[in-house]
Design a protein that fits this description.
Helix content is 32%, strand content 27%. The protein is α/β, with parallel strands linked by helices. The chain has a seven-stranded mixed beta sheet, sandwiched between helices. Strands 9-8-12-13-14-15 form a six-stranded parallel beta sheet, with helices on both faces. The termini are close together. 47% of the residues are buried. The mean pLDDT is 96. Bound molecules: ribose-5-phosphate.
């Protein structure tokens, strides 16, 4: 494998450190200063010919995105021949199309900005949709489902059912259920595109009474989708309920609202550091990096 420099973005320094150790790569740290108006200033050490920047873009989303762009620009300016951005939580991926007339397709702009800053390849985790991926010239999506399923397989669950809070996440939850040899059901969720209000159809395709349920989603933001789903599962007599996702943004009091809705615990990856980051993404990301560069 060629010599790789792993650049620790301020949002993902622990994850970058773990990835660098797994690759046996040189870790370059970034010194951050945030001014009173919110602007970031970054100073980083000299990187090598192949740069892998690790920076998740969880909130403050735009700040973290800007920092990723700054690091990419620096690597490109220093003459790196390849800049790869590892962005586990890729902000704006949900805006992969114009849902209402006049809306901007934000993820297409993010793709262009990264490219303009010198990024040649993006590695992300559980991206919201295939459509979001289609806006990038070169992108790889790492699934967190195998490692999340492995984590859950060590928990004692009674007749588990994997539940997707909406039809869009059905394949993810189905794959999780398969790995766990559990049943699977997708709820029928709809969202008012103007008010953001979430509604769930009460009719379930399987009986969940007395069974433990694991809600599987790509991300939890306001917690609205998980709360609605947990309320329905409780109404249908489910046993213990867990919420599992790759990206636990948990804005404001989302975690408290989720627990108040009857969820025992939230299990997430270290895409977003914090209390619920129980599953380490570094093995899966390091493998993806290795397979990209092993023939270079
Ligand atoms: C939606 O399609 C996503 O997969 C998530 O279900 C959603 O973005 C979660 O957001 P919130 O926690 O705000 O409901």
């Amino acid at each position: 494998m060629p010599e790789i420099s792993v650049i620790a973005g301020p949002a993902s320094s622990d994850l970058a450190d773990k990835i660098a150790k797994r690759l046996g790569a040189h870790l370059v740290s970034a010194e951050l200063r945030v001014f009173s108006d919110g602007e970031s200033k970054i100073k980083m050490g000299r990187a090598g010919k192949i740069c892998v920047i690790v920076q998740s873009t969880y909130p403050p989303t735009d700040t973290h995105l800007m920092q990723a762009l700054m690091l990419s620009k620096k690597c490109a300016d220093d003459g790196s021949r390849d800049v790869c951005a590892v962005i586990p939580y890729l902000a704006y991926a949900r805006q992969d199309r114009a849902f209402l007339e006049g809306e901007v397709v934000s993820i297409a702009l993010v793709a262009k900005l990264l490219e303009a800053a010198g990024v040649r390849h993006v590695i992300t985790v559980d991206i919201h949709s295939q459509l979001a991926m289609s806006h990038f010239v070169s992108v790889q999506n790492v699934s967190s489902i195998p490692i999340l399923a492995d984590h859950v397989s060590r928990m004692k669950l009674h007749s588990p059912v994997a539940v997707s809070p909406d039809a869009g996440g059905a394949d993810r939850a189905k794959e999780f259920a398969k790995r766990l040899k559990a049943d699977f059901v997708a709820l029928k969720k709809s969202r008012d595109r103007t008010t953001g209000e979430v509604m769930v159809d009460e009719k379930l395709d399987i009986d969940v009474s007395g069974r433990d349920a694991i809600l599987v989603d790509d991300m939890i933001s306001s917690g609205g989708s998980i709360v609605k789903a947990a309320e329905l599962l409780r109404k249908k007599g489910a046993g213990k309920i867990y919420a599992m996702c790759a990206h636990a943004l948990l804005i404001g009091d989302a975690a408290q609202k989720i627990k108040a809705a009857g969820v025992q615990n939230i299990i997430a990856t270290n895409s977003v550091p914090g209390e619920y980051a129980k599953v380490d993404l570094s093995p899966a990301i390091a493998e993806t990096i290795k397979s990209r560069y092993s023939s270079a």
